[in-house]
Fold this protein.
Amino acid sequence: MAIFIRAARDEDRITLGALKLRSSLAWGDHIEELQALAEANEVRAEHIAHAIVAELDGEIVGFVTVLSNEGTTQAELEDLFVAPEAWRMGIGRELLAQAECRAVELGALSLRVVAGERARPFYEASGYRFVGAVATDLAAAAELLKDLPQGRNKA
């Protein structure tokens, strides 16, 4: 059961949006709010070029999006979602590792993520540290940051 990692394609957009909502709803929190929030089941078209997809047996089971503004040293982990039926299989860890590599390729020295309380332990176990609290559309969340290895930056 090998995980296949690839770049997202335009035709993946609807599938990724549905996966994002399904994964978010699986916790049972904020169900009505998520169903009413248009962006909860959408991956913006301009983000597809920055997304990495994980497939298992030919099916998309997760994705991550890394954004970076030119000239900045901090990248943003915008989305990381894994299909609930694929939780606890290492897919999230693999996607996070891919995101960190992508951020380094973009010249980032750190990667920032805003995570809810359920996701916070996952990021902290991967070396992210709490740097502040932020308000989101649904609830307060943690702003987390990880310094990235500088030795892999492009010359």
